[in-house]
Design a protein that fits this description.
Layout lengths: L7 H7 L6 H6 L7 H7 L4 E14 L2 E13 L4 E9 L2 H14 L2 E2 L21 E5 L2 E7 L6 E2 L2 H10 L4 E6 L5 H13 L4 E2 L5 H4 L8 E2 L1
Parallel strand pairs: 7-8
Antiparallel strand pairs: 1-2, 2-3, 3-4, 5-6, 6-8, 9-10
Helix pairs in contact: 5-6
């Protein structure tokens, strides 16, 4: 089925004027069509993080729906998170998948661990913190080879984002999967708060001056 874009951003992608997801996110135009993500990130992966059944009583009786959370990413700096409800699991997954694509972000990666200094984007560039509800998540750069020393939910999100090594510290009720996932996602968003000049990344790890500046 041929995609017919309905938004300005979609039309720019279809015309070939925007050719990467980075350009699309920096354009300032709202991302309202999941097909845009499909076109710009053809290697996108998705994974269901959580499925649960929710019920509520109405005048006509008990109604049952399924609540699903899905994470998407290309394992190379882009990750998204979405949640949806539907009467059937398959429909809920499809809705959550589309929402995850519309919530996609680009994160900053690096080698912020003083124990490593390889200069490769295998971890985080610096410590970041995210919060949702009672859950507070702190992600710290780890040296190469440590892997993802994080919880299962955070591990899925970080892997889809392309982070291979990280340490995690949490506070709050992390058994609430939604809050835990959103706090992790919020922490990854905060990697974009600080701008890093790529020309000076290598000298940083060779004893040079850290030229990182904040907005």
């Amino acid at each position: 089925m041929t995609w017919e874009p309905k938004t300005k951003l979609g039309k720019l992608v279809m015309e070939g004027k925007i050719t990467s997801m980075s350009q699309a996110l920096r354009s300032g135009l709202p991302l309202r069509e999941p097909e845009i993500v499909d076109a710009l990130l053809p290697d996108l992966q998705d994974e269901v993080i959580h499925v649960r059944m929710v019920q509520r009583m109405t005048d006509s009786g008990r109604r049952t729906k399924f609540s699903v959370m899905v994470a998407v990413g290309n394992s190379d700096g882009f990750v998204g998170l979405g949640k949806a409800k539907a009467k059937e699991v398959g429909a809920a997954i499809r809705k959550a998948l589309d929402k995850a694509k519309l919530n996609i972000i680009e994160i900053k990666r690096g080698c912020g661990s003083w124990e490593c200094g390889c200069g490769m984007p295998h971890s985080l560039p610096f410590k970041v913190t995210g919060k949702c509800g009672s859950v507070l998540v702190t992600l710290k750069p780890a040296p190469k080879g440590v892997g993802l020393a994080v919880g299962d939910v955070a591990k899925t999100i970080l892997r889809l984002a392309g982070v291979k090594d990280a340490w995690e510290f949490t506070r709050g009720h992390t058994k609430t999967t939604f809050n835990y996932a959103m706090a992790t996602f919020d922490a990854l968003k905060n990697t974009r708060i600080v701008k890093i000049n790529p020309q000076i990344i290598a000298p940083i790890y060779k004893g040079g001056v850290n030229n990182v500046r904040s907005d």
